[in-house]
Automatic annotation (TrEMBL):
This is Aminoglycoside phosphotransferase domain-containing protein. InterPro entries: Aminoglycoside_PTrfase, Kinase-like_dom_sf, Pseudomonas-type_ThrB. It holds the Pfam family APH. GO terms for molecular function: homoserine kinase activity.
Length: 328
């Protein structure tokens, strides 16, 4: 790291997700993050395309964490440790912090909508201007190759998942509804600083429906059992101001056709299905302790519930509520 970025790894705080390592360096003028990923996760071309898209986005969305070149003026650095190959990229660190559910409110949902609306407008405008990036389409991602998870899923669950995927693939792709998306726009991938939402970790960016980014945040908000557990999850979304606030901020910056919003719940189900395929190889005792429940089993129940998936989330919230009462 010292040779490639003129930064000493000993001075960094270290973080690990299910796939990447992040080394955060706090500096006087601007904190930065070096993201290190196993080379088999993405081709060099894909990482370069991510770098280029985020760099282009920065022109239109000022709170996107822009990439920087290395000390050798390279967008992507490659190296080997113990016979394993890695790729590294350097980004500005987001300002602010991740808000926990104790700080979520309708103003926060509005701000997230503003940020995502700006991102999708920049994506649509770039496409109209002829910008293209070498990133895959959503259905080409390994997490949507549902049949490859047959060893961990029942035939009934697989059939439901493939049917849902087929329904979404049949939805027309238009320049207003489909383009480059973040791909993992959940609350852990953006920081809040006053009214600004700083977006980072574009590792999963690619071509997809804009609605998928929208439901990625919403799925986490209504899933979180600590957030207003006394309120039914469907009411939390539709009657408590969550969707209205988010949608108001989003539509102030990008006009997603009314027809697209009608498929919100279909995309919610798809997001929980992808969450399941992400968790199957990654979920362990460490994550169970952090999250507080078995994410894999929850997602299986959500898939099997079909249109009644809110009831599964209600059950999770209710169990948390009962735990609080028991402790009191």
């Amino acid at each position: 790291m010292l040779e490639k970025y003129s930064l000493d790894i000993a001075n960094a705080s270290r973080h690990f997700s299910t796939r990447n390592y992040a080394f955060v360096f706090a500096m006087d003028y601007c904190s930065v993050v070096i993201r290190v990923s196993p080379a088999e996760l993405r081709t060099r071309e894909e990482v370069m395309s991510e770098f280029m898209w985020v760099d282009d986005l920065k022109q239109f969305h000022t709170t996107v964490c822009q990439p920087y070149a290395s000390a050798k003026n390279k967008a992507v650095e490659e190296f080997e440790v113990g016979g394993n190959k890695y790729r590294a990229t350097l980004f500005r660190r987001a300002e602010g912090k991740i808000l926990t559910c104790e700080d979520w409110n309708n103003h926060y949902f509005y701000n997230v909508g503003v940020s995502l609306g700006k991102l999708h407008k920049a994506s649509a405008d770039g496409y109209a201007q002829g910008f293209r990036y070498r990133r895959c389409h959503w259905h080409e991602k390994a997490t949507f190759d549902f049949n490859s998870f047959r060893h961990a899923l029942t035939d009934e669950i697989l059939d439901i998942m493939n049917e849902t995927k087929a329904k979404i693939m049949s939805i027309p792709k238009t320049p207003q509804t489909y383009g480059m998306i973040h791909g993992d726009y959940w609350p852990g991938n953006y920081f809040s600083s006053d009214d600004d939402i700083w977006v980072f970790d574009f590792d999963d960016c690619g071509y997809g429906y804009y609605m998928f980014d929208i439901v990625t945040s919403i799925s986490q908000w209504i899933q979180e059992p600590k957030f207003m557990p006394q309120i039914k999850r469907r009411d939390l979304l539709y009657k408590n101001g969550m969707l209205d606030s988010f949608k108001r901020g989003y539509l102030e910056n990008y006009t997603l056709p009314n027809e697209a919003w009608k498929d919100l719940e279909l995309f919610l189900k798809l997001r929980y299905m992808e969450q399941l395929t992400i968790m199957i190889p990654a979920f362990d005792d460490r994550l169970r302790e952090i999250i507080g429940f078995d994410m894999v089993e929850l997602d299986k129940k959500i898939v099997l519930a079909k249109d009644d998936f809110y009831e599964v989330l209600d059950g999770l919230a209710q169990s948390f509520k009962e735990t609080i009462v028991a402790k009191v």
